[in-house]
Amino acid sequence: MANDTNRYGFTYDSNLVLKDPGLIAASAAGQVNGKNQLIDVGDGVYWGAAVIDWTACEVDSSNELYTVSVQGALRGTGSTRDVPVLDTSHIENLAMADFGHTSVRKGAAETSPSSGRMILPFRNVVADTTYQILRAYITVAGTIATGFNVGIWIGKLPI
Hints:
- The chain is mainly β.
- The protein is 4% helix and 52% strand.
- It has one domain (2-156): Jelly Rolls, CATH 2.60.120.1110.
- Strands 2, 5, 7, 8 and 12 form a 5-stranded antiparallel sheet that branches. The protein has a 4-stranded antiparallel sheet with strand order 1-13-6-9, with no helix packed on it. Strands 3-4 form a two-stranded antiparallel ribbon.
- The longest helix is centred in the N-terminal third of the chain and has 6 residues, at 2-7.
- The model has no long low-confidence stretch (mean pLDDT 91).
């Protein structure tokens, strides 16, 4: 797994974790230390990549679908660099990837392996709007017994 990360020159930074490694069995925003995680990347263009590491992807019922989204949002009232606040009326999906059983994955993609790493590039600008706040959101659908064990962090792309 380390080869993908090193190839892109990412350095792991605990301040850029979008979701602690752990099980998710219902749709939710990524959390770190039990709190919804928001990262303020500033007012400029940010080229990044979500590093998605998973160690379990339950597909026993053949209808499970887990969609990982890197979302951008505008700063909300009272937001500071150290304590970002999300403007919930201005959230945009910057990049998305799905995992799960082939019967429900887009384009009939094959069933996800039980563990692995995906590098998901993104940019924080859509239609000339710069989204300063980043978060991960995982949407869970299907008959879930155990769920999806995943951790997500971001690295800055060298562009």
